[in-house]
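step=encode ok
step=design start
structure_in=
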C-alpha cells in the first residue's frame, strides 16, 4: 500500500540530550485491524523496533489508528523536522543539529503516497485545492527598525501584479 516516514529531532536543554524519532503514516487495508494474521499490536511494534535498532532499552512506541483523513495525527508528518526553539538555543546545539541532519532525507514517501506526491507536483490534484478568495490590492513594504516596523512603501498593485497574485490556489503563491 504505502507509507510516509518523517524524522524529527527534539532537544532537551535541561538534560542536554537529543531525541530523534520517526513519525510514520502507514496505509493498510480496512481488514488490517480485524485480521489476526496481519494485525501488529503495540507491544509487538515495540519488540520489532527494539530488534531493528538493536536497542533493548527502548521502552516506548506510540501507535495510533487514524480515524479519518483530517485527523490531527496526520499533521505531525507535515510539521518541522526540528523546532527552531530547539536548534537555536546556542551555537553548539545548532552545529549538532546541522551536522546530524545535513544531507539527510528527512521525509520519505512510498507506494500510494509516492504516487500522490508525484500527482501533487504535476498539478494533477489542483482541483482539490481551495482558491484564495482574498482580493489583494496593495503592495506594502516594511522594515524592522529595532523596536518597531517602519513603513517603506505603500502603493496599489499594478494590473500585472493584480492578475499574477489574485485567484491563486492556497499555499501556491510565488514569492521572490
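sequence_out=
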Amino acid at each position: 500500500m504505502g507509507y510516509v516516514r518523517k524524522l524529527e529531532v527534539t532537544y532537551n536543554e535541561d538534560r542536554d540530550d537529543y531525541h530523534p524519532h520517526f513519525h510514520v503514516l502507514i496505509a493498510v487495508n480496512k481488514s488490517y485491524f480485524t485480521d489476526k494474521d496481519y494485525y501488529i499490536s503495540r507491544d509487538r511494534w515495540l519488540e520489532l523496533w527494539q530488534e531493528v535498532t538493536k536497542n533493548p532499552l527502548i521502552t516506548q512506541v506510540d501507535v495510533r489508528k487514524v480515524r479519518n483523513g483530517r485527523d490531527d495525527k496526520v499533521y505531525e508528518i507535515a510539521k518541522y523536522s526540528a523546532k527552531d526553539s530547539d536548534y537555536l538555543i546556542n551555537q553548539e546545539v545548532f552545529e549538532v543539529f546541522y551536522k546530524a541532519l545535513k544531507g539527510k532525507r528527512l521525509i520519505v514517501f512510498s507506494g500510494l503516497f509516492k504516487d500522490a506526491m508525484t500527482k501533487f507536483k504535476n498539478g494533477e490534484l489542483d482541483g482539490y485545492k481551495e482558491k484564495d478568495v482574498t482580493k489583494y490590492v496593495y503592495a506594502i513594504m516594511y522594515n524592522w527598525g529595532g523596536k518597531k516596523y517602519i513603513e517603506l512603501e505603500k502603493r496599489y498593485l499594478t494590473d500585472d501584479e493584480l492578475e499574477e497574485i489574485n485567484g491563486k490556489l492556497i499555499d501556491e503563491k510565488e514569492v521572490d
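step=design ok
step=annotate ok -> The two ends are 38 Å apart (CA to CA).
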